[in-house]
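Hi everyone,

Forwarding the result from last night's run.
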Amino acid sequence: MMKIGTFEDMEVWQRASELVRDIYSVSNQGHFAQDWTLRDQIRRATISIMSNVAEGFERSGNREFIRFLYSSKASAAEARSQLYIAFDLDYLDEATFQALKGKLSSISRQLSAFIKYLEQHPRSTS
C-alpha cells in the first residue's frame, strides 16, 4: 500500500468528495430540491463519509482510525438508503439512481478493505 501523507491523498476521501458534489447537484433539482428534509439528510450523510475519513486519519493509531472508518461506512449505508427514498419518490431517474448507488457501494467496499488492511497492519505515523 502506498504511503499516505494527508487525508486528501486517500482515494476513498477523494471519491467521497466527488460523491458529495454529485449529491448536491442532483438534490438541487426538481422536487428533490423542495424536499428539504430528505435533501439535507442525504447531504449530511455523504458529507459524513468524507468527514469521518478525514477525522479518523488525524487521530492517533489504527484503533481510532478504524472506528471512524466504520462511521463512514455506516453513513454510506444511510445515504444509499436515502437514495432509494429519492428514487421511489421519482426525484431521481433510474440511471442517476444506479450511478449514485454504485458509487456508494464502491466506497463502502473500499472502506471495508481499508479497515481490514488497518486491522492487519500497523499504521506508520511519520
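Helices lie at 11-27, 30-34, 36-58, 61-88, 94-120.

Cheers,
N.
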